[in-house]
Design brief:
two-stranded antiparallel sheet; 2 strands; 3% strand; 4 helices; mainly alpha; Fic-like fold
Length: 137
């Protein structure tokens, strides 16, 4: 069976009734399409809150990345904002090994994030206030 991810471990529990297609979640969502919509709506809300929370000259850190992840997914997944502790792959392509995530995040923060500020994210449309279609109906 093809699944969205091929993980193993505690963070990889699937929602009962999802036929192994949707990770366990607080919303009880069992359809991948419904989860994609819920995650998209949550992202729009998180983007708006981030724009209102961070100063224009905010220099992002590894902690900010975790905080943004939590802001985005905390109402959906218990593990939101935490480093992944399971190895995952999609379509046969393995993601970074779980044990490397803390190191890779620190390196990313030192090299890439040190030059990224909220104002630039907004200018590049990486972060923006959501359009009404992003809002939960």
């Amino acid at each position: 069976m093809t699944t969205r991810y091929d993980p193993a471990g505690v963070q990889a529990e699937f929602e009962p009734g999802s036929r192994g297609r949707v990770l366990r979640n607080f919303l009880g969502i069992t359809r991948a399409r419904d989860m994609a919509l819920a995650e998209s709506q949550a992202l729009g809300l998180a983007q708006a809150q981030a724009v209102d929370t961070y100063s224009q000259d905010q220099q992002f850190t590894a902690l900010d990345i975790s905080d943004l992840h939590r802001l985005w997914l905390a109402d959906i997944y218990a593990w939101a904002g935490e480093y992944r502790n399971v190895n995952m792959a999609k379509g046969g392509f393995p993601f970074a090994a779980a044990q490397q995530i803390p190191y890779l995040t620190r390196e990313f923060a030192k090299s890439v994030l040190r030059d990224i500020h909220l104002a630039e994210c907004i200018r590049q449309r990486i972060l923006r206030k959501p359009w009404p279609s992003y809002m939960a109906s």
